[in-house]
Amino acid sequence: MWPGMQRNRLVPVCGTCCSSGPGAPLWIWMFCCGLALIRGQSYYPTVNTHYGKLRGVRVPLPSEILGPVDQYLGVPYAAPPVGEKRFLPPEPPSSWSGIKNATHFAPVCPQNIHNAVPEIMMPIWFTFNLDIVATYIQDQNEDCLYLNIYVPTEDDIRDTGAKPVMVYIHGGSYMEGTGNMIDGSVLASYGNVIVITLNFRVGVLGFLSTGDQAAKGNYGLLDQIQALRWISENIGYFGGDSNRITVFGSGIGASCVSLLTLSHHSEGLFHRAIIQSGSALSSWAVNYQPVKYTRLLAEKVGCNVLDTMDMVHCLRKKNARELVEQDIQPARYHVAFGPVIDGDVIPDDPEILMEQGEFLNYDIMLGVNQGEGLRFVENVVDSEDGVSGNDFDFSVSDFVDSLYGYPEGKDTLRETIKFMYTDWADRDNPETRRKTLVALFTDHQWVEPSVVTADLHARYGSPTYFYAFYHHCQSLMKPAWSDAFMLCMLGSVWKSAEHEWNKGHKQKLTRENVSHSGPVRN
Question: Measured in whole angstroms, how far is the alpha carbon of residue 459 from the centre of its chain?
């Protein structure tokens, strides 16, 4: 059984403590829930680790059916990647004497949420609430490699041994985000699992690469691997089972999880992966032109671009704020700073690694939502009038031109896509055109990469589960006509516990629904 499914649902659902609607995203619900939880904190548990003792805080949840959760916040899992350690793999943290206070979040990794990337590369819930998001990332520091641990305190009578562990990799666009935005308390208590969130280096500081030994890149992925190493070594002290660790994430977080399953550096550090709305095969999962953007950054801050060693030495001397605030715009549907094929952490093209069976040691659950492609068509879609024929043709042409650099065959490709994504029984209906245009982007950016990933994983008989989420949710962050996308799913998954529990609510992802999806091949 997958962790968190002990009580007829894959993940917990709790109600509103804010005025947000049922489609509100994960972080809003957890923020509101967190406000309700801070009342009545009085017990401060301590726990040993390999590096020293930690003092956490026991937090009661605002629901009679949920037990309290011990929170250990701001736990260092790596040494500060500062000074000469910038643009290098993380190192283990130093030990400490006495008891370290772990009752407050640590700073987040340096980032810039304004003009960092094209809006189409950022989650809708992120861009819709930039002012609120900004409050979560005000405290920034390069010394940011910390994790947060949420431990349930009431044992499930069906599982009284060491608890399964779920490690959440936050999304974004590789340029922003923090594990601090996700409160794992409700999931931990309801699912009787230990939930862990973490910060990792993002953007320039997390993924800059010169394409050679001067700066190999993938520091953000290596941070995640170091966090998993710390968890594997220490989770037993918190009552967790190091042999039942599941890594999960959505969007860019899902791409990270997918890449972690392909890296030999991750071997033995986790056992299951949940890959939601993303894959290592998505066009934005891997940066295939890292040197181009690194040189552009170096030019902007006045560093030598002719010698990579000199360039990296110069970039290490620059203030982190100066680096992250540079406006480096990637090609459409791609990223400027993200994971790279370095021959080590990612030894080859992800699809080649999948074909070679590199990820067969993991059980994998993955899936998509029907309306994921909304983000890519917002600028041409009119919520009232649908999409005109001219706008449809332009969107398809722009899509082909942005993704396929070779000129040969472009005309044929454009016409083929138009033919395949035209509902010929209702070809003149602008609302139908709107629906098929969203389907085009959903299929290309999410469905096809996820289906191929699932097929390659299942090909060798490895346990592989695939879901498709179709529920039509209501949210201020999307037009009323649009179909389900990630915030719809996460909005109900991570809600606060104060709302009346309605077991019949259609938004809930239940064990029955998961069983209906069935394995791809088992």
Answer: 26
